[in-house]
Write a structure and sequence with these properties.
Strand order of the largest sheet: 4-10-9-8-7-5-6
Largest sheet: 7 strands, mixed
Mean pLDDT: 91
Number of strands: 15
Distance between the termini: 17 Å
Low-confidence stretches: 443-447, 467-486
Structural class: alpha/beta
Length: 486
């Protein structure tokens, strides 16, 4: 076997993945996975040299392998990288820069390694400060993969058929397109906030009290849901009146992704008690931060994270802030996001399976439906669309509770030219999906899975590695995956 992992064949890598990586760790494009060997800015390259426009990688916030961020990490790594517990100029300088971007009362930082750790600590802090236990969450939200966070992530509870704990109170997703209260309701923000008030009242009637309300200012896992006007403002008021704290989960939305502001909560005219940050901070290097008030921070007697806030992570984090400022990425997110949404909305009337376009800045969702009248989700069409876009060399993903929302969360160096190109390709690909729907089902609900050409190309690539034929004919099988490789 070659010493250099990138010299392994696609099939060798696939077989090793099966042997050495947990089966529950799913691959993107699992039917025909990609082997990515390098990336730059908003582009990724596979082992065959194909270039893909990355429309989904919100971890590489300022662009894959940005030279300023890479250099900062390399230089710090040659000087010092150590565990938590020592004085570090790099750490305190980074904390100061983060705090200066937030409202005045949010002035104390905790450094961790992942968004899950930050959200877990947020719940711990809320409980320590309020001396209460219960948490209010948004339906279909996802906040992390620790046991506590799975308990407050309705998306995961549904996926794994897990019960809702008695200390968790789930309120409806503030979705004005397919939710309980829609755009034709008068003041849907107030109506959804009333659901928070009702959850508080029910909890108190059962002798329970609220420690926290946690919500993304733009709800990613639920399908890029933009809460309606007044929702967060009123929900925060009701929670605080009940003695609870308000947590803004900015793991996916922070550092300017939503345009105009560094933080998405600023678009709702609210100031949370705790803010959690992650993903984008290190441009791919693991780092997360929790920021809160001094009073709330003082309620916790002790905390440590062995690797949280290490000098390399902080150096790279500061470099990311440099790039955002120097390359004017907040204004870019606003203008490029508008360009993308304008183009998607322009083609919206042309497609009977395209139900809604929504978002803020560089987080945009396109809802794929069975028809515009019923607004029923169409997962099969969304999945087929993602694979058709892959064939055109665009990296896409389908999200939401019904997996029917095409999500755009590209690196912030995405351009208007990129936006126009991807919208044009999506227009063509969706037209093909709709043609398949009419041909196969005579206008009934779509029952297509992955396009046949994807299966053919996947088999060809595996066959090209050696002569062994591990798969049946694509015409006989709807799906292949790495689990089926001998």
């Amino acid at each position: 076997m070659p010493e250099n992992p990138e010299l392994q064949t696609f099939k060798q890598t696939l077989k090793m993945r099966r042997n050495y990586v947990g089966k529950s760790c799913k691959l993107h494009y699992e039917v025909s996975p990609l082997k990515i060997v390098r990336a730059s800015r908003q582009y990724m390259y596979d082992d065959s040299g194909n270039e893909y426009l990355d429309c989904i990688n919100n971890v590489s916030h300022v662009g894959h392998c940005h030279p300023h961020v890479v250099t900062a990490g390399q230089e710090q790594m040659t000087k010092l990288n150590t565990c938590y517990g020592f004085l570090s100029d790099c750490q305190v300088a980074y904390a100061k820069r983060i705090v200066e971007l937030l409202p005045e009362q949010l002035c104390v930082c905790y450094f961790l390694n992942s968004g899950s750790e930050a959200n877990d600590l947020a719940i711990r802090l809320a409980r320590a400060y309020t001396k209460q236990n219960d948490v209010i969450v948004i339906d279909n939200a996802y906040h992390g993969n620790t046991e506590n966070l799975i308990s407050i992530s309705p998306k995961k509870l549904k996926e794994h058929n897990l019960p809702i704990e008695n200390w968790v109170h789930v309120v409806p997703t503030p979705d004005v397109y397919r939710g309980k209260y829609r755009e034709d309701n008068i003041n849907p923000g107030q109506l959804y906030a009333n659901e928070v008030k009702l959850a508080i009242a029910k909890a108190m009637a059962n002798g329970r009290k609220i420690s926290a309300f946690i919500c993304e200012p733009l709800i990613a896992a639920a399908g890029a849901i933009v809460p309606p006007k007044n929702f967060l403002e009123l929900a925060y008021r009701y929670v605080r009146e009940a003695g609870g704290l308000c947590i803004a989960d900015e793991i996916q939305t922070g550092l300017g992704r939503c345009g105009e502001h560094y933080w998405a909560f600023q678009s709702h005219d609210v100031v949370p008690d705790i803010v959690t940050l992650g993903k984008s901070l290190g441009n791919g290097h693991p780092i997360s931060i929790l920021v809160t008030t001094k009073e709330i921070s003082d309620s916790l007697n002790e905390f440590s994270s062995s690797y949280g806030g290490n000098p390399v992570a902080c150096a790279m984090g500061m470099a990311v802030l440099d790039v955002i400022q120097n390359e004017h990425m907040l204004s870019s997110a606003k203008s490029v996001g508008k360009c993308l949404m304008d183009e998607l909305r322009r083609i919206l009337p042309n497609h009977r399976l395209m139900g809604d376009v929504r978002g803020m800045g560089m987080m945009v969702g396109v809802e794929i439906v069975q028809d515009k009248e019923s607004r029923k989700p169409n997962k099969d069409a969304a999945e087929a669309l993602v694979y058709k876009m892959k064939e055109r060399k665009f990296m896409m993903a389908n999200e939401g509770p019904d997996k029917n929302v095409i999500i755009f969360q590209p690196p912030m160096c995405f351009t208007c030219e990129n936006a126009l190109t991807v919208a044009k390709a999506l227009d063509q690909a969706l037209a093909e999906v709709e043609e398949d729907d009419l041909r196969v089902n005579s206008g009934s609900n779509l029952n297509i899975q992955v396009p046949l050409s994807v299966l053919t190309n996947a088999k060809h690539k595996l066959d090209s590695d050696d002569d062994e034929d591990d798969f049946e004919s694509p015409g006989k099988r709807q799906k292949i995956s790495y689990e089926e490789v001998d």
